[in-house]
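Assess the record.
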Amino acid sequence: MNMMELIILITLLVMLVIATGYDLKWRYVPDYASYSFIGIAIIERILYALELNNLNALSWAAPATLMLGGFGYLLYRAGMWGGGDVKIITSTAILLSWFPGETIPLFIDFFMNLMILGAVWTLPIAVIIGLKNKIKPTMTEKILMIIGITGWLLISQLMKPLTGFITGLGLFTLTSINYLKRVEKKGFIKPANMKTLMDGDWLTEEVKVGRKTIKPRKQGLTKKEAEQIKKWWRKGKLKKKPLIKEGIAYLPAFLLTYAATILMGNLMIITLAEGLINGPEMIMILK
């Protein structure tokens, strides 16, 4: 690893730490920060390409951005991610796009790991929020969750630790999905803070004053809409604070994924390899 590669990896670590701090404290990353991250990522990739005299160091940024940035944009359009998440995963894609001697590009390792560690981060938080808001699982949901936990424990005994954890996590997620959907609908909804309401916040109901109506959108409020609602509130034109949906801070999952990618590699490939090695042993046990 040369000095420029080390700088790229450290830069991304610093970016993700800063973005995670913003997300945990304010649930958003300011545009000036997220756009700056993208600019820095492009500049470092250009410098790296010049140092190596190899266009791959720059040209691979395009497919990496298309894959990770496109994935993030789809989740943004679906109302699952905020705009800051999309910009951060774009800068991550650019910085991890290509390094010499890779069998699988690092950005693909990151993307595959995010599928696993995103669930590791969000699942327990969603369950805690559900319990905190006294959203009790139905009898059917309880039975499914017990099956999921029992299956997880059984799988953990039959497989190697990482394989057992990831496979069990997938099973528990599938058996808990109905409960998690109810938590999403009820546990994340609260009255808006009229001082901090901003673009990107997700309305859950119409806000209407006279002939003007601001409707919920999957992409959240625009800056103009947020300012209009705050203006109506200051003038006493709203009887109550509008309800908004507050999502889970997701950027810590990016930081967790990055650390796992650098320290461990591709968790899915490790899991598959462990499963193939351990498969015959598990079949003998089941027999």
In short: The first strand starts at residue 189 and ends at 191.
